[in-house]
């Protein structure tokens, strides 16, 4: 690092936290504290997170990790778990409307964001110039709404194959065998022979949520489920209280 003469400038601020570096300064931990877990140390009152805990990574991981560490600190200080995560899975209310996704959206190419040319870059200017209104609209249209899942109720399916005739891509399979793969995802063994087919199965990795199969199905065997993750304050009375052995003092 070589200082460039005349390049200094003043930034007015109330508080400055000097937190820039390329390596961890473990020596700032009070002796003889050592990192023992993802956020824990040999002193129950000292927590670590982000780059300091596991070394240099990107800011997104650091922020997410700090949030996890904050929840652990909250649990330690309050003596009970006060927040929880859950996944809500529900049938889409208006099944026939589907996800609202149009096939036209396939044609929307990803907008390219303007960046400041290298020679114009300065310390206080954003390099990524952002999207204008039209680019934002196009980018939002391209969302594939992956939190929707199209499924076939095998008890209702009569193997008419109509859904396979309207599918826009290789998304619905005539399968003889379904199993759970090593990564936990469903995998299917396809068969070209109708009488050998045990399931008509939707491959969610290929599905673009167009709704064509749902609209054509004569037996209403196809449904859409929506999945949302939620974080909420836990009803404290349902959780076992853990006594704090040593009330924290700093
Ligand atoms: S909703 Fe999915 S599975 Fe159904 S036809 Fe469209 S892409 Fe295929
Ligand atoms: S259209 Fe409906 S009934 Fe026919 S094969 Fe597809 S899911 Fe089964």
Alpha-carbon Rg, integer: 27 Å
How helix-rich are the residues, as a percent range?
10-25%
- Strand portion: 15-25%
Strands, count: 6
Structurally, the number of domains stands at: 3
What's the helix-strand series? HHEHEHEEEHE
Q: Overview of this structure, please?
A:
There is one protein chain. This protein has 250 residues and is α+β, with helices and mostly antiparallel strands. It folds into 3 domains: 26-82, no CATH class; 86-101 and 145-233, Alpha-Beta Plaits (2-Layer Sandwich), CATH 3.30.70; 102-143, no CATH class. It has 5 helices and 6 strands. Strands 1-6-2 form a 3-stranded antiparallel beta sheet, with no helix packed on it. The protein has a 3-stranded antiparallel beta sheet with strand order 4-3-5, with no helix packed on it. A hairpin with a 5-residue loop joins β3 and β4. The longest helix is centred in the first third of the chain and has 20 residues, at 59-78. The protein is extended. The relative contact order is 0.16. The model is unreliable at 236-250 (pLDDT under 50).
Summarize the model shown.
This protein is of the alpha+beta class and 250 residues long. The chain contains five helices and six strands, in the order ααβαβαβββαβ.
Which descriptors apply to this entry?
250 residues, Alpha-Beta Plaits, 3 domains, 3-stranded antiparallel sheet, extended
């Amino acid at each position: 690092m070589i200082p460039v003469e005349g390049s200094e400038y003043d930034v007015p601020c109330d508080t400055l936290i000097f937190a820039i570096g390329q390596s961890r300064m473990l020596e700032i931990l009070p002796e003889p504290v050592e990192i023992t877990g993802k956020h824990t140390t040999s002193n129950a009152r000292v927590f670590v997170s982000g780059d300091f805990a596991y070394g240099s990574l990107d800011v997104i991981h650091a922020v997410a990790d700090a949030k996890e560490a904050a929840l652990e600190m909250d649990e330690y200080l309050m003596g009970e778990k006060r927040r929880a995560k859950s996944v809500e899975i529900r049938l889409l209310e208006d099944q026939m409307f589907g996800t609202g996704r149009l096939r036209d959206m396939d044609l929307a190419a990803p907008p390219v964001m303007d960046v400041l040319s290298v020679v114009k870059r300065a310390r206080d200017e954003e390099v990524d110039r952002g999207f204008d209104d039209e680019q934002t609209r196009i980018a939002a249209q391209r969302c594939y709404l992956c939190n929707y899942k199209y499924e076939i109720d095998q008890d209702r399916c009569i193997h008419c194959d109509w859904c396979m005739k309207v599918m826009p891509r290789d998304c619905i399979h005539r399968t003889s065998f379904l199993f759970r793969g090593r990564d936990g995802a469903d995998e299917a063994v396809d068969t070209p022979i109708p009488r050998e087919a045990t399931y008509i199965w939707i491959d969610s990795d290929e599905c673009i949520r167009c709704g064509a199969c749902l609209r054509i199905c004569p037996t209403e065997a196809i449904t859409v489920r929506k999945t949302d993750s939620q974080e909420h304050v836990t009803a404290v009375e349902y959780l076992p209280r853990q006594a704090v052995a040593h009330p924290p003092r700093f």
